[in-house]
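batch job 7 of whatever, protein = Carboxymuconolactone decarboxylase family protein
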Amino acid sequence: MSSPVEVAMDAETQRLPALRPEQLDAEQRAVYDALTTGARGRNAGGIEIAADGSLAGPFNAMLHAPQVGGVLQQVGAALRYSGVLPGRARELAVLLVAAHHRSAYEWYAHAVIADRLGIEAELVDAIRTGAEPRPVDSVERAVVAATRELLDTGDLTDASWAAVRAVLDEAAVVELVTLVGYYGLLALQLRVFRVSPPPAARARK
């Protein structure tokens, strides 16, 4: 599935050097171990690890600032593996965030997860092209509508709040709003630090 953005970045343009395991201090190593042996390490497709042991995507940045990165990875792991949102609804929301922020790496990583969860190609393509995705499932429809409004306006109207609360409990709505903010933050980091998908993924566009 192609990315919603054109990227001209490669390993030479990334602003943060890739940290190898032998370069890490104790605090960085604790974050590295949490990323590679925790919930993400136990779930297929959680983290990409290079041949030299360095981490791809947003995770290398977490090692550079372990005091913040350690907490940030815990939030991400909670959203991915301990949340109450259904997996398909969660990934539709993440793809909407990635497309909105034109984050090539975020799109690349989560399009793979969406495919694994069986999300229909037409839904993914609608998000990629900026069309309106129309899920059949009522929860997915509500999540898509709420996410689009959060991205467009930074808020939910009373009517939108009532619509999403009709199908999601309070915990799920809190999780959804947190998810939109979290993946928006990662999209910002990925842009600033010039992190792009691997060359093979870019070649498939």
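notes: DSSP finds eleven helices and no strands in the chain.
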